[in-house]
Write a structure and sequence with these properties.
Low-confidence stretches: 120-131, 138-147
Organism: Clitoria ternatea
Subcellular location: Membrane
Strand order of the largest sheet: 1-2
Protein name: EamA domain-containing protein
Strand content: 15-25%
Membrane topology: Multi-pass membrane protein
Number of helices: 4
Keywords: Membrane, Transmembrane, Transmembrane helix
Order of helices and strands: HHHHEEEE
Helix content: 55-70%
Structural class: alpha+beta
Shape: flat
Length: about 150
């Protein structure tokens, strides 16, 4: 399921870059706006699908990195924009960050008996208790695992 999520996140990033590229194309304004709208709608649909399989952090960072790198390279190759050494160094650091995030387990997701994805979270519950030494109410905390 995770690999499919990354495909959706990459698709979202590429579609966002295509929307930016479309804005610079020397074509009729109506067609330009139609392409921008098409690529943005496709980007959002892909991004939502990536969120179904990945954590929001993994989906967002992968989408951003793909958009940033593909937009920069498209500007360089198609529009002859200059890219500095710092841009390439930053792009490399972004790629390394995406690789680190893709190999980490941010959230543990499970499916319940209805097929819904749920998040396994450790949470603290405060229980009111009557304190023996004074007349006020105190609280104790317990840690519980919800599944």
């Amino acid at each position: 399921m995770g690999r499919k999520g990354y495909v959706w996140a990459l698709s979202a990033g590429f579609n966002a870059a295509l929307a930016a590229i479309s804005a610079k194309l020397p074509i009729h304004q109506f067609l330009r706006y139609a392409l921008i709208l098409l690529f943005n709608v496709t980007m959002w649909a892909s991004y939502v699908n990536s969120l179904k399989a990945l954590s929001s952090l993994q989906a967002t960072v992968t989408n951003f990195a793909t958009n940033f790198i593909s937009s920069g390279l498209a500007g360089f190759f198609f529009f002859h924009e200059s890219l500095s050494f710092q841009w390439f160094a930053g792009a490399l650091l972004i790629i390394i960050g995406v690789v680190i995030l893709s190999n980490s387990s941010i959230e543990k997701l499970f499916q319940n008996q209805y097929g819904e994805r749920i998040l396994h979270v450790k949470w603290r519950v405060l229980h009111p208790v009557q304190e023996e030494h004074d007349s006020g109410i105190g609280y104790t905390s317990t840690t519980s695992d919800s599944k």
